[in-house]
């Protein structure tokens, strides 16, 4: 007579030690890993243990075929276990935006936020060649571009798995047939989304893309006022983007509204699982403009059209309108002299008014003879403190000088007000190079801080892999920088890549860099605590770093 078994007989793969199973499953590509998690409860538990910590993955492809390029980057970012929570893709303008976006959604799914953006260049690592690229593309495009021209094709993709954060896509709407952009609603939508999913009043971080036809300065200024300093905001202020979110009601708004911007909002999850650490956002910058001359004040500002203004100015504390035309002509002539071969050229610009002249010295280098000229306008504003109280503050906004008349400057933009103070700035490669070194040192100090916070903890951890580390980063660099600006390669990417050589990184070249965060990282060496805060930059590179802090040890 047979004896009944007391339980089910274990056989086959179920007899394999859990550590061996975990080792095998951790080597699977993401799709196969997802299937494995559905086999049984044991495997699901093991898979959850493998993916207990946040993770970023990035990949770059310069394949001239859009379909092949998407296939390459998808295979690379999904070559290891990951459950995508969001994705950002940056493509060349020679690729079809809608088609690229559709191909990425097809591979990653339609339930996660996905933003696809046309950029002026990309930064990232080609996983196949294991090589870092800073690929910047020319501005020419159109029907004359031949299909065989492969020099301006490529894309970079960043995918993130961030447990402990809720990630939402919030658009800035402009109803069709209307000219008003709903900026206040945009800011409130971000705060309401955060309040709905988090115990925090404001997001931990925001990555945003502004439409190239929209002036992002007043929009980011309102966000800066409404959110505490610890909220990190980065992005591209002059983009051409399309997005998809898991909320179908938002996806349907395309039929009734235009999207002037989109914000990828990272809010701390109110129901974060136990035993999970905290994801942190850090940001620093390299600036590429140099101030010169005395403080000036806007006497009268006249809109020339919807995109330009005529600015009459005087020396601060003095009467008399500046002879703007004479100043611009002097700068133009001295740059022309510098082009004749002098490596360094000092010259005097006379600021002429009705009744006096004031002079100061400017140094032009031969490589900066085509430097762009800006005015940096300081404006009084209010900011939200960490306690939620509005406090006085100052903001710095840049406007490019594009010409002028005898007594006025013509600038791009219409946001300057009578009484605003400003300085002249010029793009300067030496300043940018020095500032890159400063950004490198800031990130080096951040790396040391991350290590020191975890030093004692590591000695007591049973799981040595559960340590604080940099998950990855995103770089937003001005299109006018790069090798042609510095005379050297990889200057923009080295502050991040040399500090965190194994961390995933993606980036793009853009035409307006959004960067806002705590002053301890954002400020340059010559700034002080009372200096105005700039959120939309020119000739800069913005570095976003995401790190992970494990939970505190139980006593």
TrEMBL record:
Family matches, as CDD domains? F-box_SF
The record's listing under InterPro entries reads:
F-box-like_dom_sf (IPR036047), F-box_dom (IPR001810), FIST_C (IPR019494)
Q: Which domain of life is it from?
A: Eukaryota
Q: Where is the FIST C-domain domain?
A: 323-517
Example GO biological process: positive regulation of proteasomal ubiquitin-dependent protein catabolic process
Organism, as annotated: Populus deltoides
Q: What is this protein called?
A: FIST C-domain domain-containing protein
Q: Show which residues constitute the signal peptide.
A: none
Q: Name one Pfam family in it.
A: F-box
Checking SMART domains in the record gives:
FIST_C (SM01204)
């Amino acid at each position: 007579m047979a004896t009944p078994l007391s339980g089910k007989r274990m056989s086959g793969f179920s007899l394999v030690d859990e550590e061996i199973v975990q080792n095998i499953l951790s080597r699977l590509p993401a799709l196969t890993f997802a299937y494995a998690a559905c086999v049984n409860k044991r495997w699901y538990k093991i898979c959850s243990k493998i993916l207990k910590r946040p993770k970023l993955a990035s990949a770059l492809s310069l394949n001239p075929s859009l379909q092949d390029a998407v296939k390459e980057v998808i295979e690379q970012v999904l070559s290891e276990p990951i459950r995508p929570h969001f994705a950002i893709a940056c493509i060349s303008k020679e690729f079809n935006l809608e088609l690229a976006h559709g191909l990425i959604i097809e591979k990653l799914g339609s339930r996660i936020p996905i933003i696809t953006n046309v950029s002026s260049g990309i930064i990232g690592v080609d996983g196949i060649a294991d090589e870092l690229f800073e690929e910047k593309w020319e501005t020419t495009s159109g029907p004359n571009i031949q299909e065989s021209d492969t020099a301006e094709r490529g894309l970079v993709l960043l995918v993130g798995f961030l447990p402990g954060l809720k990630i939402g896509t919030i658009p800035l709407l402009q109803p069709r047939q209307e000219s008003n952009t709903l900026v206040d609603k945009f800011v409130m939508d971000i705060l309401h989304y955060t309040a709905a999913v988090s115990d925090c009043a404001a997001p931990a971080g925001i990555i945003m893309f502004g439409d190239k036809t929209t002036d992002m300065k007043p929009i980011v200024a309102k966000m800066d006022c409404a959110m505490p300093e610890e909220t990190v905001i980065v992005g591209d202020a002059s983009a051409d983007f399309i997005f998809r979110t898991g909320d179908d009601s938002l996806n349907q708004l395309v039929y009734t509204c235009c999207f002037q911007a989109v914000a990828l909002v990272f809010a701390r999850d109110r129901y974060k699982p136990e035993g999970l650490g905290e994801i942190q956002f850090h940001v620093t910058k390299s600036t590429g403009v140099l101030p010169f001359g005395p403080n000036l004040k806007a006497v009268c500002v006249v809109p020339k059209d919807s995109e330009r203004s005529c600015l009459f100015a005087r020396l601060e504390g003095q009467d008399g309108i500046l002879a703007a035309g004479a100043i611009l002509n002097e700068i133009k002539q001295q740059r022309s002299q510098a082009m004749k071969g002098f490596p360094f050229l000092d010259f005097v610009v006379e600021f002429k008014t009705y009744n006096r002249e004031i002079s100061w010295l400017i140094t032009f280098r031969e490589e900066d003879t085509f430097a762009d000229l800006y005015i940096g306008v300081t404006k009084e504003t209010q900011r939200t403190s960490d306690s939620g109280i509005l406090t006085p503050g100052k903001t710095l906004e840049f406007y490019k000088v594009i010409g002028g008349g005898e007594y006025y400057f013509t600038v791009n933009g219409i946001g300057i007000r009578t009484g605003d103070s400003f300085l002249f700035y010029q793009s300067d490669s030496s300043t940018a190079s020095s500032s890159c070194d400063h950004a490198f040192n800031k990130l080096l100090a951040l790396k040391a801080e991350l290590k020191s916070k975890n030093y004692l903890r590591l000695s007591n951890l049973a799981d040595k892999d559960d340590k604080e580390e940099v998950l990855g980063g995103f770089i937003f660099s001005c299109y006018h920088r790069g090798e042609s600006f510095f005379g050297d390669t990889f200057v923009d990417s080295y502050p991040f890549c040399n500090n965190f050589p194994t961390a995933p990184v993606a980036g793009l070249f853009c035409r307006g860099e959004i960067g806002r965060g705590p002053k301890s990282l954002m400020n340059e060496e010559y700034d002080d605590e009372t200096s105005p805060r700039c959120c939309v930059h020119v000739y800069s590179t913005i570095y976003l770093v995401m790190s992970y802090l494990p939970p505190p040890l139980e006593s």
